[in-house]
# Entry
Amino acid sequence: MQHCSKKYHAVVIFASMYQILRRIILIILLVAGADLGLKAQCTLRFSGQVRDADTREWLHAAVVRINELGITRVTDSLGRFSMEGLCPGHYDVVISHVGCETLYTHIHISADFSKEYSLPHASMQLGTVTVVGTLQSSMNREDLKGRELESVRGLSLGESLARINGVTTLQTGTNIYKPVIHGLHSNRVIILNNGIRQEGQQWGNEHAPEIDPYIANRVSVIKGASSLRYGSDAIGGVVLVEPKLLRAIPGTGGEINLAGFSNNRMGVLSGIMEGNLKKTPAFSWRAQGTVRRGGNAKTPGYWLENSGLSEYNFSLTAGWRKANWGTELYFSQFNTELGIFSGSHIGNVTDLMQVINAGTPPDYIRSAGFSYQIDRPRQEVQHNLIRSKTFFQTGNKGRFNILASWQYNNRLEYDKKRFQSSDESPQLDLSIGTAALDLVWDHNLIRGFRGTIGLSGAYQDNAYSRRLFIPNYRMQTGAIFWMEKWEKGKWLLDAGIRYDWRNMYDINNNDGKGYPKQQYQSASGQFGIYYNLKPGMQWYANLSTAWRAPHVNELYSDGLHHGAARIEKGDSSLVPERSNSLQLGMQWETGRWNISVNAYQKRIDDFIYLEPVFPPQLSIRGAFPAFRFTQNNAWLTGFDASVSYAWTHHIVSQTRVSVLRARNRETKDWLIQMPADRIEQELQYEFNNGKKIRESYLKARLQYVFRQSRVPATGQIEIIRPDGTKELAADYMPAPDAYTLLGIEAGAQVLVGKRLFSVSLSVSNLLDQEYRDYMNSFRYYADEMGRNIAFRIKIPFNF
Amino acid sequence: MKSAFKWLFLSSAFILALTSCKKDKVPVNEEELITTVKLNFTEVGTSTVTTATFRDIDGEGGNPPSLFETVNLLAGRSYQVRIELLNESVSPAENITDEVVAEANDHQFYFQPSGVAVAVTNLDTDGNGFPLGVNSVWTAAAAGTGTLRLTLKHKPGIKANNDPVTVGDTDIELDWDVQVN
# Structure
């Protein structure tokens, strides 16, 4: 009850914060309005490339026209066109070429953007395409969209993101995937769910992002700390999960996605329905839902007992859009129930060493068959998000955005029961509520600059019941940021600053024990150069400094981590970590070559990590290695490179390489748990378009992941080898061997009546390879998933 | 527009205030916790009773165990041993031994002496006639010191005759110091 009365206090804080914020907005508006001496200019660029959909050749002399403005461009010999000086807004675009069907499309521009168009020979009318621009900047941003996104439909968000070069996953078994960007993850990566920073219990290695990837038509990763817009913590990077814009053309439409997977017999059904009213064209709506149900996964040798999953998610969006203002309300709910492989829930270190030394789970675990049943141990997670987004044009000067959101996340973890008579309740029950408000003003060109100024504030309340792992706490955060971009000729410069405050208080456990409150504040900054050397070739460099305050688990966690068989202890004297990084990159596109390289060097001072302490801690279940959070200086350096070459208009090969070195600068040793180097080779064949079948392709992918040989040389964990010898090591088990995986994929768009169905068939781990990955915490217990055949179909509909 | 903004802001604060209130602070699942292991020795042929105790009130992690006593035995003597498991984090203390006995078919104690001449025999059995080990007889042959590993295994549905100690999940694993005089 005492807990609740404090809530009203929070409302009062909010009300007073609101007063302050309102004043600041008024000031910003006045400043904007006062700047009358300048004529606002429209400076966005729309560029692209046009190709023949059938032969896949670039089309020379195609005509691209924006109807509303009467601007016309003719493509060059590589099919390229570019239009400058556009105002933000909606436009109808017509692309025509002698002998080809004219393409009518609709674009929404809020920033510079570039797109590839294909013109068909056949006399078919293509659907309307809505695209959102990508900002050209010195930041390294990579997208997963279109066919690439289609080919990972049905997988979890973390698993999907691993398609992006430089992004790997931190796995817990076959269901739980967290994105790792350049070796950093969890609190060091911010995930934006439809523009809102995801606030779950993301500190935990086995806490996957609670987001349905089907809401998005594009998933992007901004690598490194250069994006100041979303928060200071993102020293690893930012993941953006972005739905497409609401429908702008009157009518009702949608799509149904179906996917089936052979390995765990998982079925996925997802649907979207959306519409725009003819009578009130300002109003648009969308309803979306997904159901995923899978059973036990199978390694090449055995079933993984209790590895099923059950998930259902939905979201609703309503939008009202006028020329000068618009508002959108969004609600989403994510529900998942995940089985945790029963062979991973070990009782103590003796059990752990037994399964490691045996190299395989015990017989009574391996003898399990297929089942959809989800038993203990398991997790149940629910995430709710309500978001409202409102914008209004501030004259020609810019646009003011208000983003308000509320999130509530509940996580229940059920351990194995000690007795049949034990009650059914969970052992861990964590809930976290977050309310946040962002006020952002994007301004159009003023004296050569375009930029964004914003304020951001949030209030968070974390509560647990049952077993203590992290304490209850409340947190207030605030930030102010300002980013500008300046462009002239071939040069683009961007810079930004951000200042963050964080106040964590009311930290206590349910026995009444209090912990010291924590306050942190600091600045982040970014400066970058982007240089268009010649058409198709860009260089960029980005320098950034960012910080991350220690999170509650790093400060105060105290308890046994079951899956990892270790005791983790926080340290309340930890100070924020500071990352100074440099990124250099290049993109080069010619008719045949497409090369991109991104190299980075991060110096992280006071990098927080888990350090083993000696001696191990005695408990009723024997001695557990004890770890405490500590900090030291580190550096991470590496590069991601991708080279693709079009041998003919049909055959394209692509090579991707990702390399990372992570060192502890003080102990002169490697950092533990960093992804191994990897190389990927893809070969793709594109078929000519037929009358009924188009965009068909065949693809083979070979991935080689090196053994992670760069691990700490020594440690404090006493391990007993099968021959009885004892040794001290940094990990219970050496890093697994290198592995090679082969995958194939085939897909096409099929015209059925007037509908264009997308179908694809893919096989991952085609050779049913037995392997383990260093970044999977279940590498101690079992092999990875074996061969998995997936079938996907997308059915669009339109009324 | 200003009023819309105010409405949004206050309503989100309000919703947060409402929902985070519904959380009750439920205490730890006490019955899952075994804080204390007592070995009760009754010397065969006498009524001499001794006890050796292990106690860690806050479970794994947190504070280290507060008590871990040495087992003292006399050479050439036999002892009737009864294992007592308690959860002393609640008051009154909960007897966990009863639950082990009630679900004897899923549990088994193991006794592994090392470096000391102690033989553990006459384990009591579960309903299927498989060893349980809540009651046993310990015989100390000769003077010396060493350890005895006491393990409680949980093996629902998989308990079989002559199971090695590796089968199942470990609920207890304690290396008792043993002194035979």
About this structure: Residues 226-418+428-798 of chain A form a domain with the Maltoporin; Chain A fold (CATH 2.40.170.20). Chain A touches chain B through 68 residues (CB under 8 Å). Residues 2-34 of chain A form the longest helix (33 residues). Chain A has two domains: 1-34, 226-418+428-798.
